Amino acid sequence: PRQSFVMVKGAARLLPAEEPPPAEPPPAEPPRQAPGQQEQHLQLMMQLLRPQDAIRLAVRLESARPRRVRYLLVVRPEEAGAEAETALLGVDFAHEGAACCTLGMVLPLWSDTQVFLDGDG
After folding, report:
1. Residues 41-84: tens digit of each pLDDT
2. Who contacts 112 (Cβ-Cβ below 8 Å, separation ≥6)?
3. Radius of gyration over every alpha carbon of the chain, rounded to an integer in angstroms
4. How many Å apart are CA 44 and CA 36, to the nearest integer?
């Protein structure tokens, strides 16, 4: 399934599904550049998820290690009524151009969960 995101200053938000536009021949245009680093990171992070899961929000975090890239994801299944299965995921990339990522934290969000993030950012 195709997922659309809006990205602003290190954060990405899933956009609601919309009807696909009618098929039209693509206009002649020069070859596109490779997707940006943040888009590549989103694609790699989506590969960590189950097929029924979707990233609702992705935020790039500051890391204590200078080269490491970290994200905090809010993930939930796409089916209706699945809000009870929401989870926070911590994802790490060894460096900016890494071709793979690792899952460093999984925190299920229950109805009585309180999450406090500490820091200056």
Report:
1. 888 999 999 888 888 888 888 878 888 899 999 998 888 777 77
2. none
3. 16
4. 13
